[in-house]
Amino acid sequence: MADNGLKFTFLMRLCPIIPYNAYNYVLGVTSVSLKDFAIGGLGMIPGAFIYVFIGTTLGSVNEALSGNFENGALFLIFVILGSLAAVLAMTLLAVKVKRYLYSNIS
Fold first, then answer.
1. Do the Cβ atoms of 92 and 17 come closer than 8 Å?
2. Structural domain of residue 64, as residue ranges?
3. What pLDDT digit, counting tens, does each position of 43-101 carry?
4. Closest by alpha carbon to 94, among 9, 4, 14?
5. Residue 67, Ramachandran bin (φ over 0: left; ψ between -120 and 50: alpha; else beta)
């Protein structure tokens, strides 16, 4: 952990499977430096963008169902497809990170 703390922290933050509080406790008892912990926190940014995009999509779908959506059906289809692609990408990333971590921990 002392040698690859930044990489480990960044990959753990990318993976949305385990809550961030659990990561914080685990990383707090390891030899990860504060600098690596802080910089590795940037791995949360892609997930935050995906969550915001999904929330915006759900808001657009809600507006379309209530009849208040003004952007057109094509825009709504692109937004829904984009959200599905984001969920797929997040799932694939979680699987890749999990495999990488298991191969390096054992």
1. no
2. 5-105
3. 888 888 888 988 988 988 888 888 887 888 888 888 889 889 988 988 888 888 888 87
4. 14
5. left
